[in-house]
């Protein structure tokens, strides 16, 4: 197939509609967009439709492109993602994006699920009691990231020298990474994409790329996720992420 034929196939598969034609106010632009994303990027690399769409909704949440987020949430459901997986992918953005932007995306998800007849609220996925957040969070954090944050911010004035690392452990890992509904490998890979989409978080992109590799992603999968995300976050942020992680992702070692 050529890329026009691949575009037609992929758009129908994801959105259950025909690819854009030349009609309308921006037909030419939409054809460029669709042929690049759905005729080229979607056929480059190993990630399947499910993971590519989870990458896409993560980036769209990060950049707050809410109309496009709703379209791709529907695409996620069309290719087999569960409502719980979508909710978990969005929920886990909170420590990195903050709560307001995460709530915006959650609202969009709820609109999509309601329109498709999914009963809300979805089943809870929490697995820890409130008093276990630090212990259970550290059990996930330490094998992958060690004491990096505790050591890096030991210079802070009291009580923040201990509070800041504790908040990270309890909130990011205890509140979210302990939840069911999305596997650890997917969570780490999506975190890499999220941080790349934010821009200016290259230190964290590198750290979480190392984490993604330790939790089962291959170098090719990480690069594939970042390249796929570039259509939504832009090529400069792709290059920034790749440059930050060159030592980790290069096959010339």
3D architecture notes:
There is one protein chain. By secondary structure, the protein is mainly alpha-helical. Helices cover 69% and strands 0% of the residues. It has helices at 3-15, 27-37, 49-63, 66-78, 83-91, 94-97, 99-115, 133-145, 148-152, 160-177, 184-198, 202-214, 219-233, 235-244, 246-249. Helix 1 crosses helix 2. The radius of gyration is 19 Å and the shape is globular. The two termini are 35 Å apart.
Task: Furnish the topology, listing elements before pairings.
Elements: H1 3-15, H2 27-37, H3 49-63, H4 66-78, H5 83-91, H6 94-97, H7 99-115, H8 133-145, H9 148-152, H10 160-177, H11 184-198, H12 202-214, H13 219-233, H14 235-244, H15 246-249
Helix pairs in contact: 1-2, 3-4, 3-11, 3-13, 4-7, 5-7, 8-10, 11-12, 11-13, 13-14
């Amino acid at each position: 197939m050529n890329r026009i034929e691949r575009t037609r196939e992929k758009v129908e598969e994801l959105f259950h509609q025909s690819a854009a034609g030349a009609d309308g106010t921006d037909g030419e632009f939409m054809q460029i967009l669709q042929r690049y994303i759905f005729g080229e990027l979607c056929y480059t690399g190993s990630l399947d439709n499910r993971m590519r769409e989870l990458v896409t909704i993560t980036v769209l949440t990060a950049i707050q492109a809410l109309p496009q987020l709703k379209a791709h949430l529907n695409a996620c459901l069309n290719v087999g993602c569960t409502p719980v997986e979508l909710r978990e992918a969005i929920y886990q953005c909170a420590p990195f994006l903050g709560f307001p932007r995460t709530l915006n995306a959650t609202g969009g998800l709820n609109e999509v699920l309601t329109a498709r007849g999914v009963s809300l609220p979805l089943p809870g996925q929490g697995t820890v009691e409130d008093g276990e957040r630090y212990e259970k969070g550290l059990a996930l954090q330490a094998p992958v990231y060690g004491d990096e944050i505790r050591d890096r911010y030991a210079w802070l004035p009291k009580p923040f020298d201990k509070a800041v690392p504790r908040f990270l452990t309890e909130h990011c890992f205890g509140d979210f990474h302990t939840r069911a509904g999305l596997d650890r490998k997917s969570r780490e890979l999506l975190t890499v994409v999220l941080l790349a989409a934010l821009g200016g978080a290259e230190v964290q992109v590198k750290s979480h790329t190392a984490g993604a590799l330790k939790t089962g992603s291959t170098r090719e999968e990480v690069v594939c996720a970042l390249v796929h995300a570039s259509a939504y976050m832009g090529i400069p942020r792709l290059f920034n992420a790749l440059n930050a992680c060159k030592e980790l992702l290069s096959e010339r070692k």
